[in-house]
Every structure is written in structure tokens, then in C-alpha cells.
Design brief:
Length: 125
């Protein structure tokens, strides 16, 4: 690649909202998404080699199509309140450890006996 000889505008995006190809599944708005082993967005699961992708910004139904036929917008930054039940009580720590690996401030541990996904500590309700 040759050196520049004139000014140029560099393309940039902030990475907060990105588009990702969807596996052959239905993705619901607000669901936690992961990249499956083929690189397609799908519902997050405790599955080997899935990587956390973010939160689905839209609902996309690709269940009748092939993987990659449709795309979903994914929010990758922010604080999100997630639902959980007693069968996935371990999720708080696992999500925190994935997010802690990304740059940015770390959040202190929740002091509650039943952690809340939206807990921001200091004067935590």
C-alpha cells in the first residue's frame, strides 16, 4: 500500500451497535447473544467455544433460512438488566468475568444474598 499524498477521511464506527449474521434460529429482541462455533449470532448458552456477543437490538426470524441469510443488530456496550432463574444462578459471575476482560471500569461484587443483574453497588437497593 502506497503512502498517502493527500488528506483522506478514515471510516470509523464506535462498535456499540453492530450487525451480525444470524444462525438458522429466531432471535428475540433483548436476548443475550453469543457467536456460535461457525461465527453466527445465536441465543447465548453454556456451550463450548461460544463467545459472548451482546444483546439483540431487534427480533429476527431466520428459522426458515440458512445461517447467514439474515442479520441482527447487536448492542455491545452498556448496562443491561437480564432475567434469570434458579437454574442459571451462576450466570452473574460468568457474565461479569467475560465483561471484566473488556476495557473499562470494573464493577464491585453485589453484596446481596441473591445477586441482581442490574446491581451497581454503592447504595444498591
Amino acid at each position: 500500500m502506497a503512502n498517502l499524498t493527500a488528506d483522506r477521511d478514515a471510516m470509523r464506527r464506535d462498535g456499540e451497535l453492530i450487525s451480525m449474521p444470524v444462525a438458522a434460529v429466531k432471535v428475540f429482541k433483548g436476548s443475550l447473544l453469543a457467536n456460535n462455533t461457525s461465527g453466527y449470532a445465536t441465543e447465548a448458552a453454556d456451550t463450548a467455544n461460544f463467545t459472548l456477543a451482546g444483546i439483540a437490538y431487534d427480533q429476527v426470524d431466520n428459522s426458515a433460512g440458512a445461517a447467514g441469510d439474515k442479520s441482527v443488530r447487536v448492542e455491545r456496550k452498556g448496562v443491561f438488566e437480564l432475567n434469570r432463574n434458579s437454574t442459571n444462578a451462576h450466570v452473574d459471575g460468568e457474565i461479569s468475568s467475560h465483561l471484566a476482560a473488556r476495557p473499562g471500569p470494573r464493577r464491585p461484587a453485589c453484596p446481596h444474598s441473591t445477586p441482581r443483574a442490574c446491581c451497581q453497588v454503592p447504595g444498591c437497593p
